[in-house]
Specification:
This protein has one domain (2-211): TIM Barrel, CATH 3.20.20. It is 36% helix and 17% strand. The chain is built from eight helices and eight strands. The protein has an eight-stranded parallel sheet with strand order 7-6-5-4-3-2-1-8. Helix 4 links the parallel strand 4 (89-93) and strand 5 (113-118). The structure holds pyridoxal-5'-phosphate. Residues 28, 30, 52, 73-74, 156, 189-191, 205-209 line the site of pyridoxal-5'-phosphate (PLP).
């Protein structure tokens, strides 16, 4: 539940000596229909929502109206950039080709896309993102584009039962962000948001824990 997640964020911030207003909770709504999103999040005053796929997002965005700050947290294909001007932040830019497609669309529409660069810190074969060694070059490229604004870096830590396993990944991302992206990072999910906050996360992306009572495994989405 949202209240549980907010409590977790607050206690992690207090343990880390951080001001909770420096951490933005992005509630990831994939698999949850608009009515569920409205009652679990919007009706409780939460506006930063995340979605993985442009297609799933489109129906939801229409149903939920303009009072939402949408974050695209999943992989973006270049042929979908034309739908992306409404996003408050795109967390998943991982190639010059995608950055260039956003630049072209932004030029056409007179729009500047706020973006994060997705970094595959752990080098997992099945994950998107640039390797840490390519961050500097991609950041430089994005900085040269007038319609794409670099806001930070994003990573998805490898799945692990022990959240401490994510710490070195988060620490590496933060170091890269300090060098190349104003120190801002999108990292930490339901299982490891405390560790991410200790390591300096600016955005945490939380799905399961925002919808389910603490400790209970996710149910089937109500709309299937
Ligand atoms: C689903 C998802 C999340 C949220 O994951 P949970 O473990 O449900 O909190 C965060 N980031 C991305 C990119 C996701 O796809």
């Amino acid at each position: 539940m949202l209240a549980d997640v907010r409590r977790r964020i607050e206690s992690a911030c207090s343990a880390a000596g951080r001001d909770p207003s420096t951490v933005t909770l992005v509630a990831v709504t994939k698999g949850h229909g608009p009515e569920e999103v409205r009652s679990a999040l919007l009706d409780r005053g939460h506006r930063d929502l995340g979605e993985n796929r442009v297609q799933e997002w489109q129906g939801k965005a229409e149903a939920l109206g303009p009072d939402v700050a949408w974050h695209l947290v999943g992989h973006l294909q270049t042929n979908k950039v034309r739908f992306c001007t409404p996003f408050a932040l795109i967390h998943s830019v991982d190639s010059e080709r995608l950055a260039d497609a956003l630049e072209a669309e932004g030029t056409r529409r007179g729009h500047v896309f706020p973006v994060l660069l997705q970094v595959n810190v752990a080098g997992e074969a099945q994950k998107y993102g640039v390797p840490p060694t390519d961050v500097a070059e991609l950041a430089r490229h994005v900085a040269s584009l007038a319609h794409v604004r670099l806001e930070g870096l994003m990573t998805i830590a490898p799945y692990a039962d022990d959240p401490e396993r994510a710490r070195p990944v988060f620490r590496t991302l933060r170091g890269l962000a300090d060098q190349h992206a104003s120190g801002r990072t999108s990292m930490g999910m339901s299982g490891d948001l405390e560790v991410a906050i200790e390591e300096g996360a600016t955005w945490v992306r939380v799905g399961r824990a925002a919808f389910e009572p603490a400790g209970v495994p996710p149910e089937e989405p109500a709309w299937t």
